[in-house]
Amino acid sequence: MSKFKCTPDKAFFIVCSLLSILLLLQNDHYLTRYIISLEKAVEAQHQPPYQDGPRVKFIAYPHRISLGSGSSVQCRWETIDHDNGTKLATLIGGNAQQLDYTQRTALSEGICISPTLEQHLHIFSSTEAIECLSSSSSSQLIITGDSYMKQLFIGLADILLSKHVSKDKEILNSAQRNKILTMSQHLIEGRRLQDSSFPSVTFGCQPEECYGKRNMTICSACINNISNQLLNNVTWVLGVGIHSVSRYYQYTKRNGPAINSTIHEITTFLDTQRQDHQRDLIFVSSPSYHYNADYPTQHERMTEFYEQLLPQMIHRSPFVDVFQATDSCIWKNCSVDGSHRKRFVNRWKAQLLLNTLCEVV
Predict the structure, then answer these.
(1) Nearest Cα to 353, choosing from 322, 324, 323?
(2) What distance in Å separates the CA atoms of residue 103 and residue 115, rounded to the nearest whole number?
């Protein structure tokens, strides 16, 4: 049976092809399990998002650049009682009866809003996120970068789909991360097949063109290639850091030169994309790195990287600062390994991105 082969001249080509697919599934245990898990995820049902909340709109480049960064967005994680009418009126523009699944879980799991943004930050429902990212019909959102950006994409997918993909299974390693990323992309593509107005959100430049392990000129070429092939406008969301710093550190063996070289590479990339290509590109900071015995110098090195990168971003908006929110999350359930966060934190990072792209009207 392993030598069974379909050829175009066979009379029952369709039946033959189906038999080949069945053989593939029978012999590929991983693929079979993956398809089953994907089907279960599609079948999962949650309460649909409410329809009566405030309307939102997509803000074109340079988007909402007033959210701030650095010390101005330092925040404290908290959970919000659904009966707290004053808080709900500020955060969602409504009351507890109007909370959808995404908003209810965010308030119960934890949110982090700096005092300077209490009157400006909005917790988007799934309906609002869809409306915002669909309201610019000629725009496509492409997220790219390192593993932290993959997790941000998964967090955004959870919001758009109004469910927690793969039953909110925590991401403990790169294999799980890539599997849930692929599943999230398939589910979004499935929704778009059902409804063409559903947001076009993808993770681009895979596997590692924009991961930071190679010079950003590789990433630039990938972004240019994809953008030139698409007829629609594209909003790019990129985040790199740890692998770029590590790449330079291998040569210098000193934090200072490695950090300086990384910042020069990133800022040159951003300036080229925005000035030479007029590219709509949002840069997302690296997270805070809490101490990990396996990487004892990582916290110090990446904190220094963030602090030196920050002033360079002031004139290179838009910039989404997730360092402060991840740095202040000290609950035991905040992180998997000190740098990769639990999924509720990644959903909050996605809310910060939505607050950069979208505005309640």
Answers:
(1) 322
(2) 20
When computed from its CA atoms, the radius of gyration of the chain, rounded to whole angstroms, is 22
In whole angstroms, give the CA distance from residue 170 to residue 336: 8
Q: What is the distance, to the nearest Å, from the Cα of residue 277 to the centroid of all Cα atoms in its chain?
A: 24
Read off the pLDDT of residues 299-355 as tens digits, 9 standing for 90 and up: 999 999 999 999 999 888 799 999 999 999 989 899 988 789 999 999 999 999 999
* Domain-wise residue ranges, the chain: 13-43, 56-360
Q: Identify the CATH homologous superfamily for domain 56-360.
A: SGNH hydrolase (3.40.50.1110)
Nearest to 339, CA basis, from 307, 308, 309, 294: 294
Provide φ and ψ at 80, rounded to 5°.
-120, 130
Longest pairwise C-alpha distance within the chain: 71
Q: What is the DSSP letter of 168?
A: G
Closest listed residue to residue 199, CA positions, set 318, 359, 354 = 354
Burial pattern 213-249, b for ≥16 Cβ within 10 A else e, equals eeebeebbebbeebbeeeeeebbbbbbbbbbbbbbbb
Question: pTM of the full predicted structure?
Answer: 0.85
